[in-house]
Design brief:
- The complex is a heterodimer.
- By secondary structure, chain A is an alpha/beta fold.
- Chain A folds into two domains: about 120 residues, Glutathione S-transferase Yfyf (Class Pi), Chain A, domain 2; about 160 residues, Rossmann fold (3-Layer(aba) Sandwich), CATH 3.40.50.
- Chain A has 14 helices and eight strands.
- In chain A, the strands form two sheets. Chain A has a four-stranded parallel sheet with strand order 2-1-3-4. In chain A, strands 6-5-7-8 form a four-stranded parallel sheet, sandwiched between helices.
- Chain B has two domains: about 100 residues, Fumarate Reductase Iron-sulfur Protein, Chain B, domain 2 (Orthogonal Bundle), CATH 1.10.1060.10; about 70 residues, no CATH class.
- Chain B has eleven helices and no strands.
- In chain B, helix 2 crosses helix 7, helix 4 crosses helix 7 and helix 8 packs across helix 10.
- Classes of the chains: A alpha/beta, B mainly alpha.
- The interface between A and B is large, with 67 and 64 residues.
Chain lengths: ~300, ~190
């Protein structure tokens, strides 16, 4: 299929440097859905909104703006696959577009590296593009499936920074603006042939953000552990996310939770792009699922 | 027709002034936090919806409502030296639910910015700065991952600053503009030797 939509693919850190399968899957699966993702050369960390925002918001604005300008120079909108990156790249873009004082301040810094923020592009999360029927939509996602994930019970972790704070956000599909009990990701999971599963406090944070994972790991893991208890209660084969940092917290976090709290869940955690890849016929090897800390085997046996 | 009550001038001026003054308070603090956060913590009526929405509250002494009150009262030192300031995961649940349209999360971020000016900051935040200064990434690539990328048919390094290292001096210039790397190095050295 010829690509109807082209985006500069902003990678961030954890996807390319810890879960490269999700990067590979994003590029491959998008192509089948009419989206071409081209490299955003020279992009850096978004930078991490918790760490940089806490230290000095002005640095956060300027560093994120540099990444946005790279896409402006390509005259291409940005697509990305991480909620944390979305917070930095989308929100700084939005703030700079609407606040002249802030934008002048940022441009003063960017001038020292011969760059200028113009506010000429938009930023999107891949999940929102997949759901938006003007771009892809649930029906087209369903039509692209060659290996339905039949019989698999999959729960969704939405994460925080794509949809919250709701007051600031703007989405083509208004369903995404529901931050209390959304179901649009469940629709996307259902489109793959799997059974989406609801659970207690599904909108709760993974606990990793705001620098807390680095500052007080036991505190951060305790928040993730609460979600894992709630997931265990309803019985799921896998948890899916749209944020590599949440994924890291739930995947590697389960190993740390076992060490620190002595409880074991063995719950496979997959980025939605990885799930979509499996449903479109990519193999576990194509997705480097062996890099996951928690083995995806039991889940794979069910769906392959 | 509504009529403006004629209070004495001194009282009227006092009523117009929304900042609180006392021996251990600093009205300027409220003002500065409001400017950095682009939010309005002085409007808080202490309903506690924020604390009730907070995933950190049930497992610690962190109370976001208390921090917002401290801002409104100008209790600068009490707020900035409380270690609980660093337990906000920035999930924005409080911001989503605040009936007074305050963004408590952004209020916390503003206070963290002010704490950093006093060198109050957990080291893990500074280590992210150091990693980005050298590589452009907060979480840089490693050998296991490089091998996996090659197996996937991708380049060992992503097409970011990892491949295009010529972009790194620009990043360093931005960080140096704010003296962030120098401060990070200094504070890390002071804490860890």
């Amino acid at each position: 299929m010829e690509a109807k939509h082209k985006y500069a693919f902003y990678l961030g850190c954890i996807a390319p440097n810890r879960y490269p399968g999700s990067e590979a899957a994003a590029i491959k699966t998008s192509r089948k859905l009419g989206i071409e993702l081209v490299p955003l050369k020279g992009a850096s960390c978004c930078p991490a909104p918790g760490a940089f925002g806490s230290i000095d918001l002005n640095v956060w604005y300027a560093m994120a703006a540099r990444n946005i300008v790279l896409a402006e120079q390509m005259k291409t909108d940005i697509a990305l696959l991480c909620n944390g990156c979305y917070k930095s790249i989308w929100e700084v873009n939005h703030k700079l577009k609407h606040n002249d004082e802030l934008r002048d301040g940022v441009n003063e810094v960017l001038k020292t590296i011969d760059m200028e923020y113009k506010g000429s592009i938009n930023v999107y999360h891949l999940a929102e593009l997949l759901y938006d029927k003007n771009i892809v939509g649930v029906d087209k996602v369903r039509d692209s499936v060659t290996n339905p994930l039949k019989g698999a019970r999959i729960a969704v972790h939405y994460g925080c920074h794509l949809i919250k704070p709701r007051k600031d956000r703007e989405f083509g599909a208004t369903e995404i603006l529901d931050t209390e009990a959304p179901t649009w990701m469940e629709e996307l999971v259902g489109a793959l042939g799997a059974t989406p599963v609801e659970y207690r406090q599904k909108m709760q944070c993974c606990g990793a953000g705001g620098g807390v994972r680095g500052y007080d790991i036991v505190h951060a893991l305790d928040i993730a552990n609460e979600k894992l208890i709630n997931l265990q209660e309803v019985g799921v084969d896998a948890l899916t996310d749209i944020c590599p940092f949440c994924q890291l917290q739930f995947d590697r976090g389960q190993i740390e939770i076992e060490e620190k709290f002595g409880v074991k869940y063995n719950l496979p955690v997959l980025h939605y792009c990885e799930l979509l890849g499996l449903a479109q016929g990519m193999s576990p090897q194509d997705l480097a699922l062996d890099l996951h800390a928690i083995s995806c085997e039991p889940f794979l046996q069910k769906v392959l | 027709m509504a009529r403006i009550k004629g209070y004495p001038e001194a009282l009227e001026a006092k009523l117009r002034d929304r900042y609180v003054y006392g021996e251990d308070t600093n009205g300027k603090f409220t003002e500065t936090v409001e400017k950095i956060s682009m939010s309005i913590p002085h409007m808080c009526y202490q309903c506690g919806t924020c604390t009730a929405s907070c995933p950190s509250a049930p497992r610690s002494s962190y109370r976001i409502r208390k921090f917002v009150r401290r801002v409104a009262l100008g209790l600068e030192t009490e707020a900035l030296t409380d270690p609980d300031l660093w337990l906000c995961t920035t999930c924005y649940s409080c911001t989503d639910r605040c009936p007074r349209d305050i963004a408590p999360t952004d209020v916390i971020m503003a206070m963290r910015n002010l704490a950093f000016k006093r060198d109050i900051i957990p080291v893990n935040f500074l280590k992210t700065v150091q990693a980005i200064y050298t590589t452009g990434h907060g979480v840089p690539n490693n050998d296991v991952n490089r091998a996996a990328r090659v197996k996937l048919g991708m380049d060992a390094d992503p097409p970011t600053t990892h491949t295009y290292k010529e972009f790194i001096p620009g990043i360093q210039k931005i960080l140096d503009y704010y003296k962030l790397k120098a401060n990070a190095d200094r504070i890390v050295k002071e804490r860890e030797g």
